[in-house]
Predict the 3D structure of the following.
Amino acid sequence: MARRIKETPVLKGRDAGKFLAEINKAKNVKPSPEVLNEIKKNYEKLKDIATF
């Protein structure tokens, strides 16, 4: 039988501050045009083979 999954602990103090700082830093990062083109190319491939 599977074991229960423990609840995720709540971040407090310095850990919470570090987490929020990392999240805010990541919000401002924009992917490069090369990465965007690769994503679009992969999307088109998947769209061509997908049937719904």
